[in-house]
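pipeline/complex-builder :: batch 7 item 3
reading input block
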Amino acid sequence: MKKAVALLLALALAAPGAYIAYTHVKALNVARCLGCIAMEPKAEKFREFWVEYPDSYKNEGIPAHPSWVVNESREHVVMLFFWGPSCEPCERQWEGMKRAGMVEGSEKDGRMTENYSYVTLFSLNAPFDKNGDSIRIYHRKGGTETPTTVILFERNNTIYWYAFSGEANGEGGRPTVEELSGILEKAREEKYGGVQP
Amino acid sequence: MVVCNLNCAACPFAYLCIPLAIGAFLAIKRYQSRLQKKRLASQVTFLFITNTAFIFGATGLIYTYFYCWEGPLALMACPIGVLEHAFADRAWYLLPYLFGVFGVSSVIFGRAACGWACPIGFLQDLMRGRRTKHPLDEKMRYLKYAILALIPPVCYVTGTLAYTNICPVGGLTATLPHLALDPDGYTFTAFFVPKMLILAGFFVLILLMTRGWCRHLCPVGAMMGPFNKISVLELRYFEDKCIKCFKCAKVCPMQIRMPYDNRSSECIRCGTCVDACPTDALALAFKWK
């Protein structure tokens, strides 16, 4: 009797629990936070913006940029910041960008500061990204690792972009936050020809 | 669907298959009785199922044993990782799912997942640590409960996956496999060296003490242990048949005071004692009453 009651209680917890939380757990499982297991991927050092995937990427050709990114990139430089819940490297990069005066607010409802008004920021919680798996387009191996940062802009109907996964701390080819700011400046120069929009 | 083409040099999953094949080959002689051969088959099967994301993709199921969900092929979620996320992200609705899954599994099987399914338990069986009886052994068993009790408040206060940062199981089943797949593809965070040192300590522990991780440090074992008192799968003791030879106590990998402690929260239902008993005074059986 005791065992049956215990089993019924456990089932009563598990069934509605699974109904409510299965999708959430799946999203967390699909997302990868290698920073959480003490490692971060190397990246291709920024030299110039890409049009097609560089050689270090698994994919080839021109990326299938999502339409909401393409639309926004016509008017502004776009920065995508994919982060994950309790992802420490994501939080460190966000705080670093905040200290550098690039962003304000939190990852959830963050925006660019006045100095970067030419940039539209999409700060996306990668496991729960309503736009689908857009992070995979920009990840070196087609993965879902957070943080992943993408900068892109449109010029003459061509999308120019640069992306890296892992924290912007200057290691493994990844830019520092200051260098990231410089990459945004470079994007502005290339998009608007150095003229403030 | 990935099918083996016997070309290990070019296969990204070779890091998993080769140790598994060597381990199973070495283990087959150690698992002598019929019950132990069933257990070996179960452990190998679960090790495979655990790493089948290449077939099914990552799911929202939760392992009822310890395995890192950051592993390259991890199918399900780590229970400790889910617990950490629940407290670090204030995602309380994860808790009924986690406790429900563990409740169902543990009420039916007790801590049998440690003995029959857990890849880390399997590794310890293969390593076959020494049987040592340290004076502190009995008290050290409470360490795993202390670790389990500390995880929620620390994650809540720091807002981080505090245990994951130093978890040796994550180091073994996620960090090292990722490195094996792409040795030159990563840089390391400040937690890498501590994590590897703790992993080295983990190996020393399991070599020095049989099932040392399960007995002293595993927080997942701590979640299941108390259910041994009421679990449907019982280690039954027939006192009238017992000749008090204590062979069961001598072979128990968890070093439980057998045969009297047959409902101990440490018992992993491995059945080693059942095999050792010359008079069939011990048996593994499902019993509802």
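note: Chain A has one domain: 34-192.
queue -> next item
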